[in-house]
What we know:
It contains ten helices and six strands; from the N terminus they run H-E-H-E-H-E-H-H-E-H-H-E-H-E-H-H. With 241 residues, it is an alpha/beta fold. The protein has a six-stranded parallel sheet, sandwiched between helices.
Amino acid sequence: xxxxxxxxxxxxxxxxxxxxxxxxxxxxxxxxxxxxxxxxxxxxxxxxxxxxxxxxxxxxxxxxxxxxxxxxxxxxxxxxxxxxxxxxxxxxxxxxxxxxxxxxxxxxxxxxxxxxxxxxxxxxxxxxxxxxxxxxxxxxxxxxxxxxxxxxxxxxxxxxxxxxxxxxxxxxxxxxxxxxxxxxxxxxxxxxxxxxxxxxxxxxxxxxxxxxxxxxxxxxxxxxxxxxxxxxxxxxxxxxx
Length: 241
């Protein structure tokens, strides 16, 4: 029997001694689990939480700073002009709204931008399913003096190892009479030649936020070219002469 652990337990085992930040409604179960695994503190603003985390780190603590990706954008100044200038690397837990099961339009717009924002600030990032050993990952960036962020999709306790996703429904057709194919290949041999294979649905693809690197916007010349002035009409030219 495989023993599973929650993400909160993995973060506790990674050496964090407290968690602070602004709660994310999509990560309610995870934050409640964090409060049971380590002391938790609620802060009214994300940038204020980053300032408090810097002070805790200087005092010898190892805090985990959590927030929603929309609040991540408000911490840019605190993460650079304060934390980076003071050489205090911080560890972030960011709720990645707009991905996974969260498809609200205004969340999707926000969810497409955290990776570029973090990369632009020089902050390393990963996801719980990519980092098998969170302790090693966090320690490596802390020893390098670099901020790092764990992006977490909405929903659940994010158990580890992750459950194997069930395969999509097959396009299997009844095996025609007299077919000599085995049952394993009947789905291919039993398909009529007139009916093409069913196209993959959108559920079989990663969300747009996972496409990396993002497509670069087309280069726009700056300043924009001024429109050419129209030539004077012939009647106006005659009147002038």
